[in-house]
Amino acid sequence: MAAPPQPKELKLDPKYDDYDFPTTSSVAQSGHPGYTTKEQDAQVEQLRMMLEQDGYTKNLDTLTLLRFLRARKFNVDLSKKMFVECEKWRNNFGGGVDELVQTFDYPEKPQIFEYYPQYYHKTDKDGRPVYIESLGKININKMYEITSGDRMLQNLVCEYEKVGDPRLPAASRKAGCLLETCCTIMDLKGVGITSAPSVYGYLQQASGISQNYYPERLGKMYVINAPWGFSGVFSVVKKFLDPVTVNKIHVLGSNYKSELLAQVPKENLPKEFGGECECDGGCKLSDAGPWQDAQYTKPPKWQQKAEAGTEATDKDAIKDTPDASVSEGVPTTHGGAGKAEAVQASADAAKADAPAAA
């Protein structure tokens, strides 16, 4: 049996890399931080240089560029295309993602969660944040009486931003190694032929945001309470997914608890899924995890930048100097992959089973 590769120190760029958490990946595989080859290091530098030449100055840190490169098999041109499209989206979505994450408020969350719980809750055995979605009670018409599809997507994006900071950095500090992915639990209990089509459009949008703009964030996905026939339909659907993504997805029926508990400690798993956790006020709204522990969490970088910007604005106002501000020249700009496809497969499975049920 071959010995696992030995980690090396991540090659940092002093202009862009300012990390206050471990930078050696928990995944001892080529292309991951601490396990890159000289060629891959050169590709990071090449991608950064190409983007700088095009006027980009944001999100050029090494960890971010490595995620885009891994998502495109280290093809620099394809990685650049993906990055550019992402930056254009970031500048346009919700008036700008950097601004949105600082200002977005979602007071209707408890009401929406009555129909569609989607939340981060503690960590799995590898230290990764656990993301949970329950799709069985979704009623799009009722949800749209409470909020809009745009606000639901904006909330999703803000949660993705908070995964990048502060959730994953806090989890990495606690684990003592770099964690870049989440463990997703997608509960299909109650999803059938009547409910799936109405939610497929929204989930397709949500899945597209995850795959296109937040690459390499899915660690594992457990699809639980999958209806009869789901596995057969999904075997067809997965042909259209990236093989790396397919290998991360575990389709389980109603007897999922032993396999799920092998990945998520019972004290971290909500009781409704076979665990022992019962957070005060409910697990769904607790946002419990290392990112709530002062020992591991720090103010996210986006919050620090916002506070620094406010400070600078205040100083400029006091000075009353119109030319004191300098604009930054930037081109216009969870889990996850396979989500919409999984729900569609569930609907197809339900259709296949409909005659027998009748």
From TrEMBL:
Which top-level group of life is the source organism from? Answer: Eukaryota
Q: Which residues form the CRAL-TRIO domain?
A: 108-281
Specify residue ranges for compositional bias: Low complexity: 340-358
UniProt cross-references to SUPFAM superfamilies, sorted A to Z: CRAL/TRIO domain (SSF52087), CRAL/TRIO N-terminal domain (SSF46938)
Q: Which CDD domains match?
A: SEC14 (cd00170)
What Gene3D superfamilies does the record tag this protein with?
Answer: CRAL-TRIO lipid binding domain (3.40.525.10), N-terminal domain of phosphatidylinositol transfer protein sec14p (1.10.8.20)
Regions of biased composition (Basic and acidic residues) lie at: 312-322
InterPro entries referenced in this protein's UniProt entry, alphabetically: CRAL-TRIO_dom, CRAL-TRIO_dom_sf, CRAL/TRIO_N_dom, CRAL/TRIO_N_dom_sf, PI/PC_transfer
Instruction: Identify the stretch(es) annotated as Disordered.
Output: 290-358
Write down the PANTHER family for this protein, in alphabetical order.
CRAL-TRIO DOMAIN-CONTAINING PROTEIN YKL091C-RELATED (PTHR45657:SF1)
- Protein name as annotated: Sec14 cytosolic factor
Species annotation: Aulographum hederae CBS 113979
